[in-house]
Amino acid sequence: MRLLLLNDDPVRRHQWQDRAACQDYDNELFFERENEMRVVRARREQAAKQVCAECPVRAECLRFAESGPEVFGVWGGTTQRERAIRRGRRRRRRI
Ligand code: SF4
Question: How far is Cα 68 from Cα 63, in angstroms, rounded to an integer?
Fold first, then answer.
């Protein structure tokens, strides 16, 4: 289950997770494997993003992923790299 890491910790659990479209998907779809080939990663991330595209809590999920320390994997329809780019753009806008 996708949000297992957060669900294990009742303090960090968020109600929006109960409506997550990824609940019935394997974590491996959303998180990079060690030594994963680029083409395989791109395909996996695309498939994960398709799940996110149908998710009713996509905005909450993305906000969560961008609100704290760096999180790995696909969240809110974005990859870790895409969130880093978004973070960089926000930083530059503030300068
Ligand atoms: S946006 Fe994606 S990663 Fe976030 S809860 Fe929905 S399906 Fe899961």
Answer: 9
